[in-house]
Amino acid sequence: MRYQNLFTKKQADKELAYIPFVVIGDPTAELSLHIIDVLVDNGADALELGFAFSDPVADGPVIQQASLRPLANQFSVKQGFELIRQVRDKYPQLPMGLLTYANLVFAQGIDNFYHQAQVCGLDSVLIADCPVQEGKLFTESAIQYNIQSVFIAPPDADDETLQLIAENTQGYTYVLSRKGITGTEVAASQANSDFLQKLRAFGSAPLVQGFGISEPEHAYQAAAAGVDGIITGSAIVKLINQHYNKPDLMLEQVGQYAKTMAQAAHQAHD
Amino acid sequence: MNTTNQSQPIFDYDGAYIGQYGGQFVPQILMPALQQLGQAFEDSLQDKDFQEELSQLLNQYAGRPTPLTECTSFGVNNKVRIFLKREDLLHGGAHKTNQVLAQALLAKRMGKNRIIAETGAGQHGVATALACALLGLDATIYMGKKDIDRQAPNVFRMQLMGAKVVPVDNGSGSLKDAINEALRDWAASYDTTHYLLGTAAGPHPFPKMVKAYQKIIGEEVKQQIQQMIGKLPDAVVACVGGGSNAIGIFADFIKEPSVQLIGVEPAGHGLDSDAHGATLLKGSEGIIHGARTQTLQTEEGQIVESHSVSAGLDYPAVGPEHVHLMKTGRAQYVGITDQEALEAFQELSRCEGIIPALESSHALAYAKKLAQEAQQPMNIIVNLSGRGDKDLSHVMAIIQNKAVN
């Protein structure tokens, strides 16, 4: 319901939702909570949180680097859920999604994973290496524990796949304007509006664009193409990679960046 | 999608799965690439011209069929005969060349002129480089930085044949990270690029395809052994890292219940140590590199590093079909330590004048054990999957180090 409430309000206000992504527990558990506070204070409408995984095949070098720190600190999946629970207690209405990899969901039992996700107050789970064609392995548990499943819609998917994605994704649909992996090395382009219209015609959940979004300009393009929100991941994580040894500077930079992007998202339709 | 009937094990792929293993656990963006590859692969099986071109390359360029050589003294006793399938004599020095030539031809058929591949010790990289040189394709090989430092001669071989070697410094900088990096490249480049995966692992259709291109090993063995002894062997033994040489020699025997199939995993410092690569014996079920399979992992599902004296077996996952063969009981999997493999490496050299790859030395070491324990007459076939030239400096250093200590 949290995503639905958010997008209903955003559509009424003619704003894009701004959703920043960070790796939970990075650079430390304590600083991770501070970063999240700064993101929310500066206009984040929802959060996308990632679990560090040893083999993140969908991620570029920036997010890979961020995943190494929690792993090196022995920051566990269990601690990750606990941290998310603290965030939930603080922000009861904020939509929160988890971005993870299939093996972390699988390793200790799929039901158990979704149960923990529910207990800590997550709204959705996106599994980066699970295409909709393999989704069944996970979605039954997700439904049982009231977790929305999010799938990624790539720009060159055929109609049959787009329909499957539209029918199976809940909360929001993660749309891409380009191929490849996460990162700002290749910037997002304006999403093809035929592709977005097809998704909507198949009844998809609100469309949120990610991969390569790093500048206010991308928010304006996204609004023009007709999406409902934007995700920035690598652009924020890059600031954390640069400044994690100087927490005050890091928080200041992350805050400034989030503020700029949130403003762009909120004004993109003006 | 698939239901496994416990009483009647499935021994063929049903779509993307064999039993409950396999699948296509990749980012959504890669699905069109896998679907296109699957289609091209299935089409090529029906295409006589393609099959003819491949078979010509295998015979005239790579040197197939490879001989089956009976051991004169290695492991032999009054009950047991041991035969070696000589993939070490294939061009390139290992079985890898079989499937690399096939995939490179397939890439051409799909109109893709750029090839990417991962390599650990460099054997698959060298095989890919030679196939690309031969067929006029552009080759980029991802290799862990640590491996580049350890395998300088193979890096030079690849470069000589025109391949670009890209060091991978992400993660642990080893084979699994090179695979991750190749998958990342492919997610953006599949319109023009084929990912030439090196083993019978990864997402569908790779395990099925690599098996189809390696099963020629077992097909030849079946004919050769019947000509030599007039019957099927009692046991077929092969080493298992990702599992391509093993599945290649097993394939034609899976439906011959009298033939014992034995896969040999690298037990490293011992199966009870934490330094081994025995994914089937000591790992657990997981999802890695696109497939539901067995992997070495922490309780929470982080993939851990494997260890083996042999770089080609140093991989923390395994092809899905081997998991299925183990769980259904059709094949047995055993472990051989670094030390046992090193002894077999030296013993085969001394007894037969054949220097085996360290990978294949694991299979040889187990065949020797099997021969010692044999209660009745037995004919054993070992897949001598590669030659040991690449291992000389490594083994020399280990032996000299031991002599000093």
Q: Supply the CATH superfamily name of chain A.
A: Aldolase class I
**Which band does the percent of strand residues of chain B land in?**
15-25%
Largest interface: A-B, 45 and 37 residues
The percent range for strand residues of chain A is 5-15%
Number of strands of chain B: 14
Mean pLDDT of chain B: 95
Describe the structure.
The complex is a heterodimer of chains A (270) and B (405). In chain A, strands 5-4-3-2-1-9-8-7-6 form a 9-stranded parallel β-sheet. Chain A has one domain: Aldolase class I (TIM Barrel, Alpha-Beta Barrel), CATH 3.20.20.70. Chain A contains 12 helices and 9 strands. Chain A is globular. With 270 residues, chain A is of the alpha/beta class. In chain B, the strands form 3 sheets. Chain B has a 6-stranded mixed β-sheet, with helices on both faces. Mean pLDDT of chain B is 95; it is low at 1-5. In chain B, a hairpin with a 2-residue loop joins strand 1 and strand 2 (21-25). Helices cover 43% and strands 19% of the residues of chain B. Chain A binds chain B through residues 53-61, 64, 68, 71, 76-78, 102-108, 128-134, 136, 151-154, 156-158, 161, 165, 176, 178-181, 186, and chain B through 1, 23-32, 170-171, 176-177, 180, 183-184, 187-188, 190, 285-290, 292, 295, 297-304.
SSE inventory with pairings:
The complex is a heterodimer of chains A (270) and B (405).
Chain A: H1 2-13, E1 17-23, H2 29-41, E2 47-50, H3 61-72, H4 77-90, E3 96-100, H5 102-107, H6 110-119, E4 124-127, H7 136-144, E5 148-150, E6 152-153, H8 159-168, E7 173-176, H9 193-201, E8 207-210, H10 216-225, E9 229-232, H11 234-243, H12 247-267
Helix pairs in contact in A: 2-12, 3-11, 6-7, 10-12, 11-12
Chain B: E1 17-18, E2 21-25, H1 31-46, H2 48-62, E3 68-70, E4 80-86, H3 96-109, E5 114-119, H4 123-135, E6 138-144, H5 145-150, H6 152-160, E7 164-168, H7 175-189, E8 193-195, H8 206-214, H9 216-229, E9 235-239, H10 244-250, E10 260-268, H11 279-282, E11 284-288, E12 290-295, H12 320-327, E13 331-337, H13 338-352, H14 358-373, E14 378-384, H15 392-404
Parallel strand pairs in B: 4-14, 5-6, 5-8, 6-7, 9-10, 9-14, 10-13
Antiparallel strand pairs in B: 1-2, 2-12, 3-4, 11-12
Helix pairs in contact in B: 2-3, 3-4, 3-8, 4-6, 8-10, 9-10, 13-14
